[in-house]
Design brief:
The protein is of the alpha+beta class. Helices cover 38% and strands 21% of the residues. The chain has two domains: 13-170 and 226-315, 2-Layer Sandwich (BirA Bifunctional Protein, domain 2); 328-417, 3-Layer(aba) Sandwich (Rossmann fold), CATH 3.40.50. Bound molecules: zinc ion (ZN) (2 copies). One zinc ion binds at residues 166-167, 169-170, 226-227, 229-230.
Length: 418
C-alpha cells in the first residue's frame, strides 16, 4: 500500500471547511488592506533561492528539494514565499506601477525537515509582501495586518515579538562584535553554534540550547550598533505601533533564518510554547532585490503557516462556522422512485439548491440518520406510493416535521428556506 510521502498529508473533504475558513479570513483581510493575489510556479530556478535566501542558511544548505530537470536545469520546489514574489516583481516590471505594490499569496511550501507536530515537508503558507516603500509606516501596516489576522481568527494568548537587525551599513560592525564576544567562549557553545560562528554569527542569538541561550543573554546588542537611519526607522516604527495600540515585545535575540532580512523582523508565537512553533514570521528585506539581480528596491512582508494556524485554532477550541454538505437530501425507495429522485435532484440543482442523491441500498432510517448527522436541513422522500399520488414527502429536519407536497411546492419551500 502506498502512503503519502513522509512529512506530507492529504487535506480530506471533512477538513476542507476548516481550511476554507482560514483561507477566506486571510484573503478577506489581505483585500481589506488593498493586497492582490499573486500566484507563482511551484518550482523556480535553484539560484533564485540560494542567492536570495543565502548560501549559509539552513534552508539552502539542508532543506531544499532541488532537482535537475530533463534539460539539465537545476530547479527547486518553493521553500519560502518571498523570493518568487520579488522575482515576479522584477520580471514583470512592477516598478513601473504606482508604488508600493501590495501582493499576497497562498501556496504550498516544501522543505526537507524532520517531520514533527507543526513541522512538515509540505506545508501551506499565506503571506503578504509590500514592495517599493521604505517608510516605517509600511512596517507598521504589515505588523498590524499580521496581528489583525490573529484577531480575525479569534486566536488569543499570543505574543508579538519585534526586533531590528540593522542594514548593510551598520550590521557588519555588529557582527564583528558578536564574533569577538562568542569566540572568547567558543568552548561553551553547542556544535551548531561553533560551526555557524564564522559563517552566520547572527543566528547564534537564536540557538535554543540552554547554554547558548545563557550566553546569548549577555551578548552585545544591535541597538547599540544601529546607524542613525536604522535607529530612526526603528523608533518611528515603535511610535506607529504604540499609536495603533499593538501589544508588542522587543526581543533583541530575535533574528530570522534568512539572510535577506534588514531592519525590522517580527514573529508571533503561541504564549505556551517555545520559539520553534512560531505561527507567523516576517520582516523587511531591502537588499533582496539586488541579491537576485534587480535594482535596489525596499520590501517587507510576513508569512503564516496554515497548518499551524489550524493546530492553534483546535488547541484553543475556536469554533468555526460549519456548513452542511447540501441543503437537501433526496431519499428514494424502489426502482421507479430512483429515476424520479434523479430527476428531482436535477430540478433542485437547477433552482440553485445543493442536493445530494440518496444511496440505493440503505434503509430509509439509516439515510435519515446520515442527514441528521451532517445537519442537512431538508430531506425529500420518494417511494412508489408518492409516485402514484404525484407527490413527495418533505421532511424539515430541524423540527422533524413531515408534509406531503407536490414537487413544485416542495421545491418552492426548500428554495424559500435556502
Ligand atoms: Zn547553540
Ligand atoms: Zn543601519
Amino acid at each position: 500500500m502506498y502512503k503519502a510521502p513522509r512529512g506530507t498529508s492529504d487535506i480530506l473533504p471533512h477538513q476542507q471547511q476548516q481550511w476554507n475558513y482560514v483561507k477566506d479570513v486571510a484573503t478577506t483581510l489581505a483585500k481589506s488592506y488593498g493586497y492582490q493575489l499573486l500566484e507563482t510556479p511551484i518550482f523556480e530556478n535553484t539560484n533564485l533561492f540560494s542567492r536570495g535566501i543565502g548560501q549559509t542558511t539552513d534552508v539552502v544548505e539542508k532543506e531544499m528539494y532541488s532537482f535537475e530537470d530533463r534539460g539539465g536545469e537545476s530547479l527547486t520546489l518553493r521553500p519560502e514565499g518571498t523570493a518568487p514574489v520579488c522575482r515576479a516583481y522584477l520580471e514583470h516590471g512592477m516598478h513601473n506601477l504606482p508604488q508600493p505594490v501590495r501582493m499576497f499569496y497562498l501556496c504550498p511550501i516544501f522543505r526537507y525537515e524532520r517531520p514533527q507536530s507543526g513541522r512538515y515537508r509540505e506545508h501551506h503558507q499565506f503571506g503578504v509582501e509590500c514592495i517599493g516603500d521604505i517608510d516605517p509606516s509600511i512596517d507598521a501596516e504589515i505588523i498590524a495586518m499580521a496581528w489583525a489576522l490573529m484577531n480575525s481568527l479569534k486566536l488569543t494568548n499570543l505574543s508579538l515579538l519585534i526586533n531590528t537587525i540593522g542594514d548593510s551599513k551598520c550590521r557588519p560592525s555588529y557582527i564583528e562584535d558578536l564574533k569577538l564576544y562568542y569566540s572568547e567562549q567558543i568552548d561553551k557553545l553547542c556544535g551548531d553554534c561553533q560551526n555557524r560562528l564564522n559563517r552566520n554569527a547572527l543566528r547564534l542569538l537564536d540557538c535554543k540550547k540552554t547554554d547558548c541561550i545563557r550566553i546569548a543573554d549577555s551578548a552585545p546588542q544591535i541597538l547599540d550598533h544601529l546607524c542613525s537611519d536604522c535607529l530612526d526607522h526603528w523608533l518611528q516604527l515603535r511610535n506607529h505601533l504604540d499609536y495603533l495600540s499593538i501589544p508588542y515585545t522587543v526581543n533583541q535575540k530575535l533574528v530570522r533564518g534568512f539572510d535577506y532580512y534588514t531592519r525590522t523582523v517580527f514573529e508571533i508565537q503561541p504564549a505556551e510554547e517555545g520559539a520553534q512553533s512560531n505561527i507567523c514570521g516576517g520582516g523587511r528585506y531591502d537588499g533582496l532585490m539586488e541579491q537576485i539581480g534587480g535594482s535596489p528596491t525596499p520590501g517587507i512582508g510576513f508569512g503564516v503557516g496554515i497548518e499551524r494556524l489550524i493546530i492553534n485554532l483546535e488547541r484553543q477550541n475556536v469554533s468555526i462556522p460549519i456548513f452542511p454538505p447540501a441543503s437537501v437530501f433526496v431519499a428514494h425507495i424502489g426502482d421507479e422512485a430512483k429515476s424520479m429522485a434523479l430527476m428531482l435532484s436535477q430540478q433542485l440543482r437547477n433552482e440553485g439548491i445543493d442536493t445530494i442523491l440518496g444511496p440505493t441500498n440503505r434503509s430509509l432510517r439509516a439515510q435519515m440518520r446520515y442527514v441528521n448527522s451532517v445537519n442537512i436541513p431538508f430531506a425529500i422522500i420518494v417511494g412508489d406510493q408518492e409516485i402514484q399520488n404525484d407527490v413527495v414527502i418533505l421532511r424539515d429536519m430541524t423540527i422533524g416535521e413531515q408534509t406531503e407536497l407536490t414537487i413544485e411546492d416542495a421545491i418552492a419551500k426548500v428554495k424559500k428556506a435556502n
